[in-house]
Specification:
alpha/beta; 358 residues; globular; homotetramer; seven-stranded mixed sheet; 10 helices; Rossmann fold; disordered N terminus; Dihydrodipicolinate Reductase, domain 2
Chain lengths: 358, 358, 358, 358
């Protein structure tokens, strides 16, 4: 069991007589699914003051009715200068192209940025051009964000980079689940690198975004399961980059709102016993408040929905060396807004759990 | 128990050596939810040949992929002359304004029409103008459809009119459930006409139509219930017209795809016993293959989904005279396409169940 | 907007050098749906220490796997003496008969009790005997709980009684929604008391409890809506007691897990305008952090699920005097565990929101 | 497009003056999910008379309320002698042990049997003993069913054996989907037999059976996805037997009622082009009314629910040789009762589609 849930800031800056001055944080992209979760979390974060919430759209200020009594401010049109003025840290939940335009200006102005788009996740320019052709990161210009200023924000696996980064590229929802399951085994050399790595993910419909389409119509999803994005989903190269190998990744839409369950099929190296697997996970996540290692008690979405947890389980068939990993999380929290706040906490030296009780 | 499910046409016309010549039927509006059900039912109807399926839209022929191997034809752009040429009976599942434009021309050309829109349901011009302002039925012109040529197609309650009508105005999904429950009691004088009549309906999301909107987004509906249309839903005057009184009608969207369950709150006249209520329903629906009178075994949507049944139940509190009626049906079948086929069967003298086994 | 979300205890007792000593709280009935929510909330409550979690059942200690990292203690078999020893306040989420046996002993031992069962809600013995025949409250014995020591825990409407009560009878989920909507209008004399009061409620399946039955099987509920308990649900007299009149109450199961939406049909007194209705609600809930008065923006379950909010809306048809009220809440939070914690906060002088951010 | 949907029996036996005498069929296990579908289908089958419906259980006759007006008979207690007397063909939807006891007696009495249990699917005694330890097929006794009298009823792939078999072992729901996708490619030598074969299946909850358990509780399934049966599900050896190789099979419960979508990960042999794959499927299912080959238009459950179709699609990554197959069906129809009726049609020489329009 982790120690007490009492949470306090441990960063020195801003302390006046023992009371922390809240950090000013702005959200851009506040009306999408992830954006609203950001507003909800940051409005109640003990060490943060949510100073502005902006959104692209028709330009009229609007309220977030569901957040009445939680955050009663107005969402205003996205505008870079006012955003820079209003915050020390900006959290972006914008479309890729908007993020590509906004983030460099913020970094250049000395703001720290946590970006939930895919724009800054892939390190190689060729990969970016292929998978994010519309996201011009201004790489040739004065406002380019230097590669070394960017951290890939898979919190539990990149804390050191996150602490010092100017821009944190928050991972995709699918890569978060897949990599929290795979990285420890891969790092320990327990996986047979010659065998195929198959990642079959099942996602709730909120993962498809807020735009009403034929695909997101209730009658299309209810009572339905559909595979999509075979051999062409942008999260496959993101997973592959972290693992240094190609993977077969197939996401599916399942009829629920929030949550991802990912089933991963691999083979272990000879001699990789159940005990070694268990020890590897236990060591990897001993100090991780939001990763719950459940072993043979396979995780299920219902235990992680509406939380920032990622739960991990597995079964190893010792005779054949086949291993099946199961990871699950809430795509809007640990897969998006929750991990963003967790990264903000790490970046600012707060307790990693601050503001994430819910 | 009803007699055998063997089905055969009993209309003389068209018989050649004992084998019926199928009636040519066209569907206009074949790509919406109700339209696709019409195609599915008519493609397998034993006494019908589906000659054409048309739709408004972008003008490109398209296939109904889900109906592969059931009906493999192409849906073509809506066009009145080809529709007239192709059919003896046209079934329209069009927007109100389109139906208003198409139906009179079909009737004028001697075709029988079954119209699923609301355009022809309300008898009084003032009511039509208020509730269907966009549906110009050409009432002043040569192609007007005479009121006496129109039947309100609540099958079990209007068979005589349906047999002879040129245009059958298929009832709304909500009115079908409400009126099948209420009309027998009202006709028998069992309801206290001074007491409020409250109709609280719960509908699956397919009832909101196929257009992707914020309201029909999966994430808006899943885990949600929402009331809508209070004091302003067009099905309230439709119910009121049949009953000759005003009603309080509130529909709700519930997170399922197909089905309506309607709970009706009324008071009975003094002396209206449980036995009289039961006898009234039994008599009303003795010969109705698709109305199942279930009494105290309250009906539930799961028993009627994907069928053409309307199930009815009730509870009477004898001491107080309060009665609660529960009616349910599949909004796309008994509430739309199924009842349309049932009406087609009645209009053409077929067995009422023909083509409606599923 | 309510003031700051900073929360601090304002009860003097227990302060040592400015730091509050947490109040020791025990939960009995920790493995049911409401019980697990209690554990989740109390484990993170800033002014409380959850000292024990007990449950009836097979007697073996067990863990609440879904709450791993939130509360990692063991749930132990229910036993009165250890419960008395472990806590200053006991929260009971037990079956009625168990609550009837346990609560008086706790009160007699000087513990404050918040009881989520129905045992202590009805004031009249005849009503209790009718609706809770199995719940012997020991009324004839030494351990009886005096009526004046019991408060009906509808927080926003009974704060004064809750502050001083020894036993708080937490309201039922349905009555909470219905009464928060109805009591202000009734108290203001705005309702026509001669007209029928119809309460049509739609509840998620968690409201049916954790026992696996035919009724709670997924395949029974998915795609289904079912009315139940007509004229025989125990929440009807609970609502009636608070309003001083009889009501027609029909609950329905709808295919979602958490949440209740209640639609209420009434008539207002002549002269009861929209403005008076709005002013009445605004005044009633001006200082209520968990009741959101939404007026014509009718509330929906998705905005209250996983929160302690109760949202209220209405539509008044001025011409006819008919009014429709809509109330919704999360049945496990504001309808059970959340309101229990809210009552605990009121009873102990804490900020009413403490521990209820999520 | 397949030819006309007109369906007529082509078996000579039983014809009297051109009218077929219906075949007498009995159902044992009529109250489970699959059993009720059997009753529904057989009650309306044009060439069959459903003579009896039996069930294990408490011994009291009961009605199938949801089938009112479709089949109004009583379900009576299971009893072998009356079953033998009542039917020419018996369809069994019984628990494994019951099927093992009943089927041999029926075969011995000259009845043809279609068995939906797993008892008769595995050919090797050692496999049966391991996976079905409780199902004693009486193999040592007089009533043993000879192996050569048993056909594995994967209709489209075993029509010849089905025509002559005395006992048809209806395949499991998961194997039906997996094998209809895999067998044609395997038979054509297109699969790389050295690569792992990963079968990730997503099933609706009706697949878990009708018994109310913690696992099938609505609140356990709603908003949830769960993997189960890793390395220990009985359908894995069933699939492996048909393919002659081991497979990795992981089923998941997803929050819908009816339907399975199976995603299969394999590698093709060098030179196995998209065209060869497409041609192979087209040839395999050219004459199959219930298999719809959809190619790159990946199938989805909503298109097959409430039908007897199995839809197949795939994507081949030519560069790497990885192929992903997607198959889906309704687990209670093509995965159980529908395929049983299809097998009955084949066994008796009827049109394969008879009674399966819905």
């Amino acid at each position: 069991m982790l120690s007490s849930v009492n949470i306090s800031p441990n960063h020195a800056a801003g302390n006046v007589d023992g009371a922390a001055v809240p950090v000013r944080v702005g959200v851009a992209g506040a009306t999408g699914f992830a954006g609203r979760e950001l507003v909800r979390l940051l409005a109640r974060h003990p060490f943060v003051r949510l100073t502005t919430a902006m959104a692209t759209g028709d330009g009229r200020p609007r309220r977030l009715d569901g957040l009445l009594h939680i955050w009663d401010g107005e969402v205003v049109p996205l505008s870079i200068e006012p955003l820079i003025e209003s915050c020390e840290v900006a959290v972006l939940a914008l479309p890729d192209a908007s993020a590509a335009a906004v983030a460099p200006a913020l970094v250049h102005a000395g703001r720290r940025v946590i970006d939930l788009s895919g724009t800054f996740r892939l390190r190689q320019a060729a990969e970016r051009a292929r998978w994010y052709p519309d996201a011009d990161r201004g790489e040739a210009g004065d406002h380019a964000v230097a590669a070394e200023a960017i951290a890939y924000g898979l919190t539990e696996r990149r804390r050191d980079q996150i602490r010092t980064a100017r821009l944190i590229a928050n991972p995709g929802c699918y890569p978060t689940a897949a990599l929290l399951a795979l990285e420890p085994l891969a790092a320990a050399g327990l996986l047979d690198t010659r065998a195929d790595l198959v990642i079959d993910a099942k996602s709730g419909v909120s993962g498809a975004g807020q735009a009403p389409t034929d695909r997101t119509h209730f009658s299309s999803c209810h009572g339905n399961v559909a595979a999509y994005g075979l051999f062409e989903h942008r999260h496959a190269p993101e997973i592959g980059q972290a693992l240094g190998r190609s993977v077969t990744f197939v996401p599916h839409l399942v009829p629920l709102d929030r949550g991802i369950l990912t089933t991963i099929y691999a083979r272990v190296q000879p001699g990789a016993t159940e005990t070694r697997v268990a020890d590897t996970y236990a060591a990897a996540y001993a100090a991780a408040p939001f990763v719950r290692v459940r072993g043979e008690a396979l995780p299920e979405i219902r235990d992680v929905a509406h939380t920032n947890f990622c739960d991990l389980g597995w079964r190893l068939d010792a005779a054949s060396g086949r291993i099946v990993l199961v990871a699950c999380l809430d795509n809007l929290l640990k897969g998006a807004a929750g991990q963003a706040v967790q990264n903000l906490n790490v970046a600012l030296g707060f307790d990693e759990r601050a503001g994430l009780a819910s």
